[in-house]
Amino acid sequence: MKKKRIQIIISELIILICLFYFVNSKYLKIIPPCWVHHTTGLFCPACGGTRCIISILKGDWMHAFFSHMVFCVGVVYLLIVNIVYLINLDKKNKVATWIYPKYWYIIIFAIVLIIYTIVRNLL
């Protein structure tokens, strides 16, 4: 199991390095703007999500949070789940298994995202 943990960590680091180089390259300028916001003037549920992820990869957590609060919280949650998974990989007595994604977590996330989108369009 230790070998599997090392493989997972190495593959995650390779992905993060590739994303870091993409974020700091000229290819970042080819990402198109949100067509929903461009055509209707309303924010879609994902408007600001790309800016949020790019800001996180650049290390600017404050800008990421204000770009899209729900995405930022979701990314932090997924990072915590990943750490807990790596800790529990070779343990018999698993810790904090309640944090693993459940079906109703997705429903709560969708409801919060819808409410966030409505409030953001009203303000």
Keywords:
123 residues; mainly alpha
Q: Explain this structure to me?
A:
The chain is mainly alpha-helical and 123 residues long. The protein is built from six helices and no strands. The protein is flat and about 50 Å long.
Give the secondary structure arrangement, pairings included:
Layout: H1 2-23, H2 35-40, H3 49-58, H4 61-67, H5 69-88, H6 103-122
Helix pairs in contact: 3-4, 3-5, 4-5
Low-confidence stretches: none
Task: Estimate the global geometry from the Cα principal axes.
Answer: flat
Mean of residue pLDDT values:
86
Element-by-element helix/strand order? HHHHHH
Structural class: mainly alpha
Radius of gyration (Å): 17 Å
Beta-strand content: under 5%
Number of strands: 0
Could you give the distance between the termini?
50 Å
| Biggest sheet layout | none
Number of helices: 6
Helical proportion, percent range = 55-70%
Question: TL;DR of this structure?
Answer:
The protein has 123 residues and is mainly alpha-helical. It contains six helices and no strands. Helix content is 69%, strand content 0%.
